[in-house]
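Final report, Chapter 2: Outcomes

The project's central promise was a pipeline that accepts a single protein chain and returns its three-dimensional structure in a standardized token representation, suitable for archiving and comparison. That pipeline is now operational. To close this chapter, we reproduce one record exactly as it appears in the project archive, with the input sequence first and the structure output second.
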Amino acid sequence: MRPDKIGGFSERLESQAEARKALLAKFKPKPAVVAEVLETRAERKARELEAVRAARAAEKEAARVAAEQKAEADRLAFENDEQAQLDLKREERKERKAAAKAEARAKREAKSAQRRS
């Protein structure tokens, strides 16, 4: 005869009772972790929205500062560029001469119109 794995009837009943207890223990409610500070969904959403707005404002300010720095650098580069300065002076002189020429032409035409009438 071979010996049983589990002893007698009473041992089988005990092991069955232990198994039933272990199975029931799975279904017992476990203590829930309670948050220290409860935050509602609306509060969380408002907090996240404020964070996004702050980030966007920081990006906008950084872009504005970068644009100002670029404009200043371009202005300084233009001022330091001698050829650009000469071209600018040449254009101003051309504009002045064209204005003086147009004014002289208008004056001549006015005199001629006065003589004809």
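Archive annotation: The chain has a mean pLDDT of 88.
This record, like all others produced under the grant, will remain available to the consortium after the project formally closes.
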